[in-house]
């Protein structure tokens, strides 16, 4: 299998390294706006360096991985679909919900699979948690808690174009809640605060946020996020049902210190980076994409799925701004 990669920054280079180790991938074709980055990746991974996305699509690739800047996502996704090439694209689909809807309309019914990179769908713990829901062993759910705590804030330049903590960070939790429970969000109430990093407040964003989501079956989901968790990168999920409760991420490298007398858990080196925490998930995610590109399975996370998570982010952003509950119906009609 021959896979193209568009964008060779931090995550693109990481994906190139992962793909180069998969048995099903024979060769890579890479491109980046910075020619030196493509040349470096070509030398490092034995890939062919192309001078443009168009050249990648013309190189006989079986699938393409898009890890370019967010602004480029819509154009690259649509170009690949029109060329008949299956797509894996890092989230988000686009910078705005309006642009995401344009992409959805452009790719629907095209017969070409598009997979959006929500890697928690492939983390072993999260997969097991979903299996517990699907099997019914938890009984009806009543409470879900999803957490994403970053060890430190992203750079000011990133914050300025991120769209805010709900669109950039919490959207992973929103996708997780939908995927794990199999239910849709009907109403949100969100709040936030600024506890440091003055440039985040200057950009009109918050560095710490919480959202209460009401699902269509009455389940309540609590989503917690912060840019300030110096002990490490903390991504966890709790599911509480009428019969049993389970957790994903409750393992020895959890970046949390117990103050219970004699407690030794967790005792491992805390996760410090999302690529560290979800290394296995990233590999499983790209392995799944090779199966999608080979026509062996449908996309496990479609553009439509990503748009739904985006709508929840829009509702939470509005709720934060106006200090009130917001229904999903309200933001969809706006």
Structural account:
The protein has 334 residues and is an alpha/beta fold. Helices cover 40% and strands 21% of the residues. It has helices spanning 10-20, 35-45, 53-57, 73-82, 97-107, 124-135, 156-162, 165-181, 198-202, 274-277, 279-293, 303-322, 328-333, and strands spanning 2-6, 27-31, 48-49, 63-66, 87-90, 114-117, 141-149, 185-193, 208-215, 220-226, 234-241, 245-248, 326-327. Strands 12-11-7-10-9-8-13 form a 7-stranded mixed sheet. α5 packs antiparallel against α12, α6 packs across α8 and α8 (165-181) crosses α12 (303-322). The radius of gyration is 20 Å and the shape is globular. The termini are far apart. Residues 1-118 form the Gfo/Idh/MocA-like oxidoreductase N-terminal domain. Its EC number is 1.1.1.18, 1.1.1.369. Pfam families: GFO_IDH_MocA (PF01408), GFO_IDH_MocA_C3 (PF22725). It comes from Streptomyces rapamycinicus.
């Amino acid at each position: 299998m021959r896979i193209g990669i568009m964008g060779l920054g931090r995550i693109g280079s990481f994906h190139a390294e992962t793909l180069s180790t998969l048995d099903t991938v024979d060769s890579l074709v890479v491109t980046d706006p910075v020619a030196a980055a493509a040349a470096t990746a070509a030398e490092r991974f034995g890939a062919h360096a192309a001078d443009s996305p168009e050249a990648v699509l013309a190189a006989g690739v079986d699938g393409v991985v898009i890890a370019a800047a967010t602004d480029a996502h819509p154009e690259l996704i649509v170009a690949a679909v029109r060329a008949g090439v299956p797509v894996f694209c890092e989230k988000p689909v686009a910078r705005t919900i309006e642009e995401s809807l344009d992409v959805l309309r452009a790719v629907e019914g095209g017969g070409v699979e598009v997979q959006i990179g929500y890697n928690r769908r492939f983390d072993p713990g999260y997969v097991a948690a979903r299996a517990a829901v699907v099997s019914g062993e938890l009984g009806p759910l009543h409470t879900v808690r999803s957490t994403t705590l970053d060890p430190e804030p992203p750079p000011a330049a990133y914050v300025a174009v991120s769209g805010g903590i709900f669109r950039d960070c919490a959207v992973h939790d929103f996708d997780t809640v939908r995927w794990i429970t199999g239910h849709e969000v009907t109403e949100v109430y969100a709040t936030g605060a600024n506890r440091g990093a003055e440039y985040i407040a200057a950009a009109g964003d918050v560095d710490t946020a919480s959202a209460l989501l009401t699902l269509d079956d009455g389940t309540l989901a609590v989503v917690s996020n912060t840019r300030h968790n110096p002990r490490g990168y903390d991504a966890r999920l709790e599911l509480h049902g009428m019969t049993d409760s389970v957790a994903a991420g409750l393992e020895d490298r959890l970046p949390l210190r117990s103050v219970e007398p004699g407690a030794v858990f967790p005792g491992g080196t805390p996760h410090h980076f999302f690529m560290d925490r979800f290394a296995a998930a990233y590999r499983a995610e790209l392995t799944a994409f090779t199966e999608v590109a080979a026509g062996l399975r449908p996309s496990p996370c479609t553009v439509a799925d990503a748009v739904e998570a985006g709508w929840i982010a829009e509702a939470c952003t509005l709720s934060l701004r106006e200090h009130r509950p917001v229904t999903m119906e309200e933001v969809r009609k706006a």
